[in-house]
Structures are given as structure tokens and as C-alpha cells.
Specification:
This protein is α/β, with parallel strands linked by helices. The protein has helices at 2-7, 10-33, 39-47, 54-65, 71-82, 98-106, 123-128, 146-156, 172-182, 201-205, 219-226, 258-267; strands spanning 88-92, 112-117, 135-140, 161-166, 186-195, 231-235, 246-250.
């Protein structure tokens, strides 16, 4: 076999490499599909057939997914977003899929969940324990890269998010692009949530980002500008805390035009 490999021109190897990698990924997915689920997953799946409060779901998510949230904040958010009974849920920045678990378990009437991250974790487990009939689609890569945005838009095929949660790139530019790029994909009157609207140690005390215990980046500054333009709710345990905090805006009942979005882009600048 090694002798045969040496006979293949390097240019041909490089040309076939994308096809090889694609086939390799497909084979890995097929193998995973036939791998028995761990007993831990089975037990959790059976457990989730019961009815749980938002606080109980939070406790389960901490144990099963290691969710990174303030309990008082995320519990309030779950009750708030579940009220309008969202059918299509989107999430940018899944981390360990702890929030994903909370959203899909609290909003059990949802039909479609779509998640994006640079690196996906625990998505197989998330789908295994999800409510029956809920469909999932994941995209791995830069969420606001044009090709990723195009793939998501193509997949939605005219459908729109009822609730979109943004917890990805925490730079001012990154959260701004995530919001503006996906804004047309959220239905009029829909909800858009942002994590880390409270200043962190970097913003408060000048701590280096890599030394911060709870890095929230510039989301707090973006939120301060954004909330001036929309009806909104804030879920914050304490404004004196370091980081965390969740803000949710409600979009207008009328669709935003391209010119309105362009105007918003000009207004959303870091002060």
C-alpha cells in the first residue's frame, strides 16, 4: 500500500484530499449512529419524560452538561422565552451545550433547533435526550463568516427564528456582526438574547482577558447601545457582579428594512 501511495502524484493527492476528508467524516457519523448510547444518556432520556420547572432543569443541566449560568438569571429567561411557545430556536455559541439543553427542554413545542459554534461539544448527547420529534441542525465554523450565514439562510429556506440566543464572539465587532447578520432571519416580534451584558473584570479593573475568571468581552458595551433601540428585558442577579447577565430584545412587529438595518449598523458603535 505504501508503495502505491508513492506512485500517486502529489497534485492528485491534494485534489482528492477534500473528498477523502468528507468521506471520512461521513463514515465516522455512520459509526457513531450505530454505537449504543451510554447508560448515562439513557437514564437522562428516561428522566426527561417528566415535567420540570426551570429551576429543576437548571440543576439537571449543571450536572449533565456543566452549564455556565447564574441560576436566577437563566431561570427567568427560560420562563420568559417559553411563554410565546417558539417553534424555531437558534443559538450562536453553544460551549458545552448546557444552554441548548435548557432551551430545548423548556420549549418542548419547538420543531427546529439550529446551533453554531467554532467547535461543537455534546451535540450527540443533546439530541439523544431531546423531546421526541424535535429536529436539529448544527454548523461548525465562524458564525458571521459570509459562507456560514449563507448556509444557515439556505437551510432555513424562508423560515425564521422565534428566539435567537447570541453567546459567541464576545468582541464588540463579533457580537455586532452576529446580531446584524442574523437579524433578517428572526421573525418580526421575535426575541434575540445576549449573554454577558454585565461588565467583567477586564472592563471593571483592567485585568488581562486571559486572567479573567468570567470573560464577557465587550458584550456589555454593545448591549448598552443596542437596548436604546428596542423593547427589552434584562435578567441580572446583581449589577455589581463580575460578568454574566442576560438581555433580551423584542423585535418590532413590522419587518425591518435593509435601510433600517444599515442605519442601525451605523449607530451601533463602541463609545
Amino acid at each position: 500500500m505504501s508503495a502505491l501511495k508513492k506512485m500517486i502524484p502529489e497534485s492528485l493527492k491534494q485534489g482528492l484530499r477534500p473528498l477523502y476528508n468528507s468521506l471520512k467524516k461521513s463514515m465516522q457519523k455512520c459509526a457513531a449512529a450505530f454505537t449504543p448510547a451510554p447508560n448515562e444518556w439513557k437514564n437522562l432520556k428516561e428522566k426527561m419524560r417528566g415535567n420540570f420547572s426551570s429551576a429543576e432543569l437548571y440543576a439537571i443541566s449543571q450536572e449533565a452538561f456543566g452549564v455556565l449560568q447564574q441560576e436566577e438569571e437563566i431561570v427567568g429567561v427560560l420562563d420568559y422565552i417559553a411563554e410565546p411557545n417558539p417553534k424555531v430556536i437558534g443559538e450562536i455559541g453553544l460551549k458545552h451545550s448546557g444552554n441548548s439543553f435548557l432551551f430545548t427542554q423548556k420549549c418542548r413545542g419547538a420543531q427546529q433547533y439550529l446551533g453554531l459554534d467554532l467547535k461543537l461539544e455534546n451535540t450527540d448527547k443533546l439530541q439523544y435526550v431531546a423531546p421526541d420529534g424535535m429536529k436539529f441542525r448544527f454548523f461548525e465554523g465562524n458564525s458571521y463568516a459570509p459562507e456560514t450565514v449563507g448556509q444557515v439562510e439556505s437551510f432555513l429556506a424562508g423560515r425564521q427564528f422565534d428566539f435567537l440566543f447570541i453567546d459567541g464572539d464576545h468582541s464588540f465587532h463579533g457580537v455586532k456582526e452576529d446580531f446584524l447578520m442574523y437579524l433578517p432571519m428572526v421573525r418580526p416580534g421575535g426575541l434575540v438574547g445576549f449573554h454577558d451584558i454585565v461588565p467583567d473584570e477586564v472592563a471593571r479593573h483592567g485585568v488581562k482577558p486571559e486572567e479573567s475568571l468570567c470573560y464577557g468581552g465587550d458584550v456589555y458595551a454593545f448591549w448598552a447601545e443596542l437596548k436604546q433601540h428596542f423593547e427589552h428585558r434584562e435578567f441580572v442577579k446583581s449589577w455589581d457582579q463580575i460578568g454574566f447577565g442576560i438581555g433580551i430584545i423584542t423585535l418590532p412587529k413590522e419587518p425591518l428594512t435593509k435601510s433600517q438595518i444599515d442605519e442601525l449598523r451605523q449607530k451601533l458603535v463602541m463609545k
